[in-house]
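Lecture notes, unit on protein representations.

Consider one protein chain, 627 amino acids long.
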Amino acid sequence: MHGRAALLPLVLYLCTLHTVEGVQTQRRFDIDFQNNTFTKDGQPFQFISGSFHYFRALPESWRHILRSMRAAGLNTVMTYIEWSLHEPMPGQYQWDGIANLEEFIEIAQSENLLVILRPGPYICAERDMGGFPHWLLHKYPAIKLRTYDTAYLREVQNWYNQLMPRIVRHLYGNGGPVIMVSIENEYGSFQACDGQYMQFLKNLTVHFVQDKAVLFTNDGPDLLECGSIPGILPTLDFGITNNPNAFWQKLRKYLPKGPLVNAEYYPGWLTHWMEPTARVDAGMVVNTLRLMLNQKANVNFYMFFGGTNFGFTAGANDVGPGKYSADITSYDYDAPLDEAGDPTPKYFAIRKVLLEYFGDPGVPAPEKLPKMTLDTVWLERRGSILSKHGRTMLSKGMVSSVQPVSFEVLNQHSGFVLYESTLPADLNRDPFTLKVEKLRDRAYVHVDGQFYGILSRETNVDALPLSVGLGSQLQLLVENQGRINYNIPNDFKGILGSVTIDAKPLYNWTITSFPLDNFRYLENFLTQQPADGDDLAGAGAQVYYGTFMISNDTIHDTYLYPNEWGKGLVFINGFNLGRYWPLAGPQITLYVPRHILTKGNNHIVMIEYQKNVQHPYVQFVDKPIFT
């Protein structure tokens, strides 16, 4: 893109005037290149920030978490902005509840925190498709995301036209707390290396932000050539090290003078299903922190509070050649504030250092909030989504197709797609071999409503022997486990290749959508129970229902402990908590925020994908369990 060192122009961002003790001064956040520092209202400024994604905590928790961040000695909070949250379908925008970005910014300001915004439009963040809305792949099947692709650019411009006017009044130069806005996200890691696209995004962002905040890019230390943009402040992402200077020297090739910024300093790390829980030593975290602070570097902890991937929001990674790994529901991240927002020993170790360097913020350190246990809750099985009743109440449509089609062709974000075809009558081998090419991501194999096994992208199992005489109707219930969020954005779901029986393709499919994204469908399923004779007890995707009472006036957070269960999805009081998978681990419990619970009667719905649960009960415990 550009091999030369990009000398940034000395730009003073002259902003609105404000009055201090009757004297007019210019309110501005800018860069003093000669002195290698930011300046705020003309004075040298060093930010100490923490990442907290508003969409990973309920709004009722935002203030408590932000106040805890300020109490740790941070002066800034950084958040991504998730396109898919705000525009789940084309032209349908959401700005309320967990999507109330402006309220989040205003609460941060009221808690004496500055704000750094990262609108992407690609954010990664271990979110489904890196924060891109799935419908981009439906509307433009050949779209080249994160490039100078006409269709992609048009949709980004439409999105920014909605988003950016909401941000403008919150920019520092306009009286708000937003001091910096990012352009893209770790673009140097993306093989397209499309400088024309980055220039387009720069121009689009400058159009809205103008000179009211500082614009920046962020990249790994060896990836600045494609990730940085001439005229825009480059920053680095790196974790614990005994020698930050080795990284800063790489930055100085692109930023000879100016403030040093570690935009993603990792005090923890992400975790996938079927792997050990990621842990990062607190002592090493504070050692590297001291080294950076002594160098007057600006630091953002990624993450300071991780939170939760509620619902179907967790993404996945391609962690090796053909190795797909889905992200767990918890985004605890071994962060200083844990998944429930409680301070950890790592929090207090960091706080001690920050108060030593920057003084007491005047906000008392938080205490761990109480958690509660509840009596064992028994559930009753209400039937499979494969039943006639399940199809009637839970499906969003059915199509016929010669070949299998993807979730994206169906314009489906989440849940299941059921693929059904008739098995050949002239099977010559017993057992015969079922094979599914390009499975995305997990198929629960049934014949005539009976469950016989699993094909899985994660374990590279794409074939299964089946006995002759099981029945005539092949049923493949395919689960989307989360679209890849890093470096491979076009992660289509469903069956993308052929389905063969002893190497001969099967044709003529009936394809049914089960997005499971609207609890109203589940309510209808539960309240309009069918007559006898519609019970597929041997099928997967069984729906269970239970109720539990809370008699206390004060309700605390708790953790759902599904120790008898296999893999599935949980709704409490209609709120989609997310995926559970104790058979795989390491996450066993699911965090249950107190704000979704109510005094009196509460209800729980679980969709168990694969296990025949002999004793359908759950417990609510007062601490998280990870293996």
